[in-house]
Design a protein that fits this description.
209 residues, alpha+beta, five-stranded antiparallel sheet
């Protein structure tokens, strides 16, 4: 019995030691990769902003966050105010996330000062390859669902729901989610640039979809 107890103790000590060593290795590797991963994310965002604003000669003049109340939940949108190198306002690039068919669908949309869509890119998505993933190109200029040049003052809606935008073939759910992300981005952008609430009435803006 003592021999058995000794063997169990040794096994426990060995397993504990291995777990500690592996934990240390994983922590070290995570520390090494954390910097490059963050740099890659920043590069992806920078390249995305240039793409959606259709301009390489730009400066992110300010970064702000706007919160909307949608379906009873607080949703945050990141707004990057853009100027050219001479200080002229070009509009803004807005990060907007909705739930697609396979998971979160994060879109970066570029607007000019009047709210017209300049361009867009998908930052993250979990849509089905060959179907929902086509959103990356489907709504671009010259494509079947082209939204470039539109102003979502009246929300963009797929034609199947009586709207003006052709949905991705066999991916209506993704198309609805994408357009919702674009519409919400526009609302957040206009909310950011709206006049301050009336101090006497205490009026505040809430957006519900």
């Amino acid at each position: 019995m003592k021999k058995l107890e000794s063997s169990l103790l040794n096994m426990t000590l060995v397993l504990t030691g291995v777990a500690v060593v592996m934990g240390g290795i994983l922590a070290f590797v995570n520390h090494l990769t954390e910097g490059p991963i963050q740099q890659q994310k920043e590069k992806t965002l920078t390249d995305g902003i240039k793409t959606v604003m259709v301009c390489n000669d730009l400066v992110v003049a300010n970064t702000d966050e706007v919160t909307q109340t949608i379906d009873g939940k607080e949703v945050a949108y990141t707004i990057y105010e853009i100027k050219d190198q001479q200080g002229k306002e070009l509009g803004a690039a807005v990060e907007s996330t909705t739930m697609g068919f396979g998971g979160d669908l994060k879109v970066l949309v570029g607007f000019n000062p009047e709210g017209t869509i300049l361009g867009y890119t998908l930052l993250e998505h979990a849509e089905t390859p060959g179907l929902g993933a086509k959103a990356d190109q489907w709504f671009q200029k010259g494509q079947k669902g082209d939204i470039i040049g539109m102003t979502p003052a009246t929300p963009l809606v797929v034609s199947k729901d009586g709207g003006q935008v052709d949905a991705i073939t066999a991916s209506t759910i993704t198309s609805r989610a994408f357009l919702k992300a674009v519409n919400n981005a526009y609302t957040a952008y206009k909310q950011k640039n709206a006049p301050a609430p009336d101090a006497h009435t205490g009026a505040s803006e809430q957006v519900k979809n």
